[in-house]
Write a structure and sequence with these properties.
The complex is a heterodimer. By secondary structure, chain A is α/β, with parallel strands linked by helices. Chain A has helices spanning about 15-35, 45-50, 90-95, 135-150, 180-185, 205-215, 215-225, 245-255; strands at about 5, 60, 80-85, 105-110, 125-130, 155-165, 185-195, 230-240, 260, 270-280, 285-290. The relative contact order of chain A is 0.17. Chain B is an alpha+beta fold. Chain B has helices at about 5, 40-45, 50-60, 75-90, and strands at about 25-35, 90-100, 105-110, 110-115. Chain B: This is Trm112p-domain-containing protein.
Chain lengths: ~290, ~120
Amino acid sequence: MAPAVTSTTVSLDVDPQNYEDEHVHAVYDQIASHFSSTRYKPWPIIVQFLSSLSTGWVGLDSGTGNGKYLSLPADRPGSVWTIGLDRSRNLLRIAQTAGGNGVTREVLWGDVLGRPWRDGAFDYAISIATIHHLATWERRKAAVQRILQAISPSHGRALIYVWAIEQDDLSKRSIPQSQEYQIAGQDVFVPWVVAKGQLQQKSLSNVEQECRTDPSECEEIKAQEQTSPPPVFNRYYHMFAKGELTRLVHDAADELRLSIGSKADNTMGAGVEIVQDGWERSNYYVELRRWEYQ
Amino acid sequence: MVRLITHNLLACHAKGCTTNNFPLKLQDVVVEVREAEFNADFLRGFLPRIEWTALVNAAKELGDTSLPLEMPEMVDDEFLKNLHHVLLEIHVDEGAMVCPNCGHKYPIMNGIPNMLLAEHEIG
């Protein structure tokens, strides 16, 4: 059985940047290849979003991880161009060849709170399972603002996914819940268990391969596993409460003086429309579209 | 990889650096040309979003002078082929991008540009 998810609180005394370095970035660099070998199935709403983009658009995948979305849409490969940004260099090395076929992907080593682009240079942006790793409301809001600033003020589209407290039946995790979680969300540590010999270089599939080709080595690995417990890496997550992501978008937009609503409902200025928001497979998502009157 | 399609979108984001922070100057580059699949529709769609002068100059810095100084009004196949090559086939694997305003240096290693800032450089 997988180790349990434990609740945690980010102390007001700690520097959130250092906290994330220790409980998010360092962990992903350690578990990169094992993590990547378990992340291959794109979620339906994201696939749909990427399929709906106009040919010739360029986009940013903020927190790209192993880059599994960089090669989409699968039915029109090369019709759009997604550039992946991530804090983990080891995951970026994997993302560089995401999608296979000898195609190389464009990746940037950076922080989702950074702004290393011309404002509005991108036609679209996605941020999948990333913002929930930021340790304060202010930092999560800033991450949403960076996305709004990265996309075109006249037509830019964005899709954001975060982990929800509301987990689906298929999820193996049971989530501790504090009293206030229904409004403010819940900070947790999610354990990642890496079997012996799989740190950094080896992926799970490599080990399985070895088991098939050399059973004696497989026995050795199993023996190692029995003698000492496998290393566990705790990743920090903020699990979002229902409605919290949409509130975050409102807060982020207000501060940038962007109206919330559709272009048709406004007669001047600039804004962002919430095209859809909802819950899919243990995650909340929100799709956004920017507009402006000139 | 840093190709010119990416370079055309990047700007310096060091603290206080908000004007003249684009385009970043390519420095000490190691370049490799790798073929990519040609997609005319993608190029036509992306064309209006390009900062043209920045692209022409960056291509020149990498030794490619195939692009016209002005974005052409008539887009023909030969032009699109050249544009394809400049945007998508020239890979900067090593080197740096330097801000023309504040001089901040973004190193490129193994095709990955380091766009991270130190804590005191974050705006």
